[in-house]
Amino acid sequence: MSILVVGSVALDTVETPFGRVEEALGGSAVYFSLAARLYAPVRLVAVVGEDFPAEHVALLHQHGVDVAGLERAAGPTFRWSGRYDFDLNSAETLDTQLNVFASFHPKMPPAYGDSEFLFMANIDPDLQREVLQQVPDTKLRALDTMNFWITSKPEQLASAMSLVDIVLMNEAEARQFAGTHSLLRAARRILELGPRALIVKKGEYGAVLFSEYGYFVAPAYPLEDVRDPTGAGDSFAGGFLGFLARAGEITPRTLKQAIIHGSV
User: Fold this and answer.
1) What letters, b where the CB count within 10 A reaches 16 and e where it falls short, cover 38-70?
2) Pairwise CA distance, residues 248 & 119, whole Å
3) CATH at residue 166
4) Which residue range is the domain that position 225 belongs to?
5) What total of structural domains would you count in the chain?
6) Closest residue by Cα to residue 122 from 102, 104, 148
7) 150-174 per-position pLDDT tens digit
8) β-strands 79-83, 19-26: how paired?
9) How far is CA 105 from CA 131, 141, 225, in A?
10) pLDDT score recorded for residue 226
11) Whole-number Cα distances in Å, 11 to 47, 64, 230
12) 256, 14 contact by CB (below 8 A)
């Protein structure tokens, strides 16, 4: 089954205690696509600027990602710059230049209309609802979000959540959105909006699945040498949705299996 992903494609400058990269290929849609493509066909919808390197598009194509929905607009590409200390669980944003991404409105190529699975990365919830209107017949819909949208557009985000099957967010975001310190209470409030499942990402400590069937805790795959965690949450989502697409069914068992695959 095919997966449609709508998100950002960016050029990232990242500094960690172990090194620095400048204008590297990044963005939520990129990390998701490269992980999900290990399991199922992936169709990407995003926007880049005139300065986006052709070799990055070639890399996505080389890995089997359908880039017919990658729009090239007049202006510079979205850029993000961040820094990590030895605690790699959170990044300090140094600079964000939205550029062409600021006026992005996703347009689905006609061939993408039969996509069975949909993942909307942490873009504006108004854009997420635009996407949902364009592909009404998807078998499974999932979205991710971030603290910026929780703070600036909570009502629009709640509306988008009510229209999807699965919501993904990290632990702090779940607590912030629900307005409670209790993760269990936060999960209950989010599920009451309508999604069938909530995945809470806990970084190096794994992830937790909440649904009507209860909850399931999965550890992260242990890695001794981690140098740059940028895109880890999007890669997790790619493995998670990718496995579900390959499994072809959504059951308590496949949801649990998908979390394990996402963690690896």
Assistant:
1) ebbbbbbbbbbbeebeeebbeebeeeebbbebb
2) 15
3) 3.40.1190.20
4) 3-263
5) 1
6) 148
7) 999 999 999 999 999 999 999 999 9
8) unpaired
9) 9, 19, 39
10) 85
11) 12, 21, 12
12) no
